[in-house]
Amino acid sequence: MTSPSRNPLELLGQIDLEALGRLSQKVDLPALLGTASRLSDGQLKQLSRLLDRGNRPPRALPEPDGDFYGQLDDLTEEQQVVRLRVRGFMEERVAPIMNEYWSRDEFPRHLIPELRALDLPRRVWNEDGTHKPDATLMEGLITLEFCRVDVSTAVFFGVHTGLAFASIALGGSAQQKAEWLPKMLDLEAIGAFGLTEPEGGSQVSQGMRTTCQRDGDTWILNGEKKWIGNSTFSDFTVIWARDVDTGEVRGFIVRAGTPGYRVQKIAGKIALRMVENGQITLEGCRVPESDRLQEVRGWRTTAEVLRLTRAGVAWQGVGCALGAYELALKYAQTREQFGKPIGAFQLIQNHLVHMLGNVTTTLSLCLRLSQMADAGLMRDEHAALAKVVTAARCRETVALARETFGGNGILLEYLVAKHFADTEAIYSYEGTNEINTLVVGRAVTGLSAFV
Ligand SMILES: Cc1cc2nc3c(=O)[nH]c(=O)nc-3n(C[C@H](O)[C@H](O)[C@H](O)COP(=O)(O)OP(=O)(O)OC[C@H]3O[C@@H](n4cnc5c(N)ncnc54)[C@H](O)[C@@H]3O)c2cc1C
């Protein structure tokens, strides 16, 4: 602002009389001038600063970035390339359509060929079913970038590349691996993983009701599976069943279209609606002995698969929280109330800083967990603690993010509502909060509290 003249005549020359006339129609000008002339020097300085602020161009605000400590700056070039490739795909291809598919309870299957082109599974696994040296970290980074925009896409990938692939990689014969793994790496054959049952969630290891019985060179499967992601369109589902004769848990590759195998999509979910979860019925379903996973060593193999994938679910919590935080920050910088961006209010900053703390600490936790897994040091309880902590911190973060949006926070179009709802599923699958807590509790006390 140019400094006003002290000479009364020059001062009169500087005054815009038309503007003064307009102002006098709105306020009592003599009274206003009288009040201004009685202001103290300090009050005048404050007023002058206020007027000056109104004339300045708006300051550029920082771009939202949930990686506050730059923890992802230390990645290798390949890890960065893959991460940014996933980010681009999610922002350009998934974000524009995800609300529509989420609302319709449908997975956008037309995106599978585009996902194939990203060549992600081969960044994690080799064709023979062994892991790449940085497999857990790479999978975590991919998951993080999926979930930053949409958790359902991460679940599609995690069920196929994690649960289903690992079942064959750990439990399959050389021949089974050669038949399925290359096709799975290229997303030419899509897999699902059928463990949970209507009556057997947390206790499925002890109370598995689905049965298998040998009959010559085939097995007969009977029972039900619930919540099986991708199973409505997968080429096969790995079905876990208890051997009627020996009591042992066995795994089978059940191909889509096998007589006696029926899948019904579960409707009415309030979370992860873009994931197609199936309820599977097996009625006298005959599977050849050649499709029994030959190297499965009872429940031990199933548990090993779950341990491998639990780290990925912990990463889901980080990605989802990070996405919600960045959305909330952007909204707080732009949404104005009482003449200011709501991000200028102390209570809103408190929400944002709390969210950022959660994102930062859980990101550190998962980076360390992946490092341990890739070094062969991760035990069940390590993955379980990460799942417990990230899911809980994510739940807190998405709630604060949603709150930051006020009423708009419950509208799908503002995006944060989907993160809010999806977190409820993260919280409960791949071992509930309680079950993972019991796993950690048993490890640290040496005493089992499982009933
Ligand atoms: C969206 C979604 C996708 C899924 N995808 C798959 C999939 O692809 N394949 C698959 O096989 N499964 C899948 N699941 C199933 C998932 O793994 C189970 O939901 C989970 O294991 C919990 O089982 P449950 O839902 O039957 O809960 P329950 O086991 O019935 O538990 C209910 C409550 O009781 C608590 N509880 C149970 N036992 C104990 C105990 N001993 N001590 C203390 N508390 C206890 C639990 O923590 C929970 O709070 C999916 C689930 C969801 C929601």
Task: Describe this entry's structure for a reader.
GO terms for molecular function: flavin adenine dinucleotide binding; glutaryl-CoA dehydrogenase activity. Residues 192-284 form the Acyl-CoA oxidase/dehydrogenase middle domain. The strands form two sheets. Strands 1, 2, 3, 4, 5, 6 and 7 form a seven-stranded mixed β-sheet that branches. The chain has 17 helices and nine strands. It has three domains: 71-190, Butyryl-Coa Dehydrogenase, subunit A, domain 1; 192-291, Beta Barrel (Butyryl-CoA Dehydrogenase, subunit A, domain 2), CATH 2.40.110.10; 299-445, Butyryl-CoA Dehydrogenase, subunit A, domain 3, CATH 1.20.140.10. Strand 4 (236-243) and strand 5 (249-255) form a beta hairpin. By secondary structure, it is of the alpha+beta class. The protein starts with 7 loop residues before the first helix and ends in a 6-residue tail after the last helix. The longest helix is centred in the last third of the chain and has 36 residues, at 299-334. The site of flavin-adenine dinucleotide has 22 residues, from strand 1, strand 3, helix 16 and helix 17.
Give the amount of beta strand, in percent.
Answer: 5-15%
Q: Please mark out the parts with pLDDT under 50 across 5 or more consecutive residues, or reply none.
A: none
Class from secondary-structure proportions? alpha+beta
Element-by-element helix/strand order: HHHHHHHHHHHEHEEEEEEHEEHHHH
**What is the helical fraction, as a range of percent?**
40-55%
Mind describing the biggest β-sheet? 7 strands, mixed
Give the radius of gyration: 29 Å
What oligomeric assembly is this protein in?
single chain
> How far apart are the first and last residues' alpha carbons, in Å?
75 Å
Total number of β-strand segments?
9
Globally, the shape reads elongated
EC number: 1.3.8.6
Protein name: Acyl-CoA dehydrogenase
Organism: Deinococcus metallilatus
Family: Belongs to the acyl-CoA dehydrogenase family.
